[in-house]
Amino acid sequence: MKVLVIQQRMGIGDMVIFLSYIHAIAKKENCPVSILVKENSRADEFLNQDKHIDKIILLDRKRKDVGRHNGILGFFKLAQELKKEKYEKVYIFNSSLRYALLAKFAHIKNVIQYPLFKKRGQNVIRTAKKFTEEIVGNNVSSQPIISIDEKMSSEAKTKYVFSKEYKHICVGLSASGPTKRWDIDRFISTFEKISKDQPCKFYLAGGTNDNILINKFINSSLGKNSVSFENMPIRETLPIISNCDLYVGNDTGWLHLSCALGLKCIALFMDSPVLAYGKYSNNINIVVPESETEETTSHNTRGKDKITVEQVFQKTKELLN
């Protein structure tokens, strides 16, 4: 049986969140599945060793009508590519007619899809969970799991000297936009306070676009005990993160990767929906702006200046102990 799963939400976080449902389908079919995902999901960088996934197909559609899968011609080109794979069944985590038609032109006979034209008002987790549970016939945990090779984890532990004398904290400095990014000076102040209580090492989860933030952290009093992920591919960071004691940071892809690697996480939600992205796992502990609740914190909350150092310090101290 050749099975395709289409997951078309953007970003690392959504890709991670859908993992438990993809795994459940693979187990139901008793075979690894192929996945069709957006390029910015970065799935090829952290799922290339997933035993439940045999092929990762990246949708090459970008803004300004570029990419080989853009437009009508790109649609038929993708359909031909899928047709060559001879898939017998496809699961579509999307309500769009486009993907129903794609499956038809790819000659995939068995199509299981979200109800068409029902996108408005869908909760990311609840909709995916209900869809998957109806397929497999039993309860499906929403906790995603990314497995790391024990040898790679051990090598990272040795290379980066994960001493038991320290607490090891993955710091999610990055974010998809400035309104979702807690101020770097507040991160530094929080961890300076924590470091007075117990020795800590910090693993700075960000990329080349976060260079200014990372440099400011490294040039602070915490710099001598810091490791930057700036120039590392994601797959290289995963064994490092898996050895950490805690994630503290913004609602970003690094949060969801850390959660799937089994870390306890402190997630700072200031301008994104907690109910969509913060409640799917017991590993995630939420901090929201003062005067807001988990229910009210969503898009356009714009509360980055209302999350205090003391809030994050107390929550970090609590979970480290």
Walk me through the structure.
This protein has 321 residues and is α/β, with parallel strands linked by helices. It has 2 domains: 3-136, 3-Layer(aba) Sandwich (Rossmann fold), CATH 3.40.50.2000; 150-320, Glycogen Phosphorylase B (Rossmann fold). 39% of the residues lie in helices and 17% in strands. The protein has 13 helices and 11 strands. The chain has helices at 11-17, 19-29, 43-46, 71-85, 97-105, 124-136, 150-159, 184-197, 211-218, 234-242, 253-260, 274-277, 309-320; strands spanning 3-7, 33-38, 53-59, 89-93, 110-113, 167-172, 200-205, 226-228, 246-250, 264-268, 284-287. A 6-stranded parallel sheet has the order 8-7-6-9-10-11, with helices on both faces. It has a 5-stranded parallel sheet with strand order 3-2-1-4-5. Strand 10, helix 12 (274-277) and strand 11 (284-287) form a beta-alpha-beta unit. Helix 1 packs parallel to helix 11, helix 2 runs parallel beside helix 6 and helix 8 packs across helix 13. The longest helix is centred in the N-terminal third of the chain and has 15 residues, at 71-85. The protein is globular and about 65 Å long. It starts with a strand and ends with a helix. 40% of the residues are buried. The mean pLDDT is 95.
